[in-house]
Amino acid sequence: MGAALIYALADPRTGDIRYIGQSSVGPARARQHTYPSRMRRDARLHSTRWLSGLLRSGRMPQISVLEEVPLADLDSAEGFWIAQGRGLGWPLTNLTGGGGGRRGFTLSIETRAKIGAAQRGRKRAPLGAEHRAKLSAAGLGRKFSLEHKANLSAAFMGRIFGAGTLAKMTAAAGNRPLTMACHAGHPRTKANTRHEDGRAQRCRTCAASAARARRAAGANKEATC
Question: Is the pTM of this model over 0.90?
Answer without folding.
Answer: no
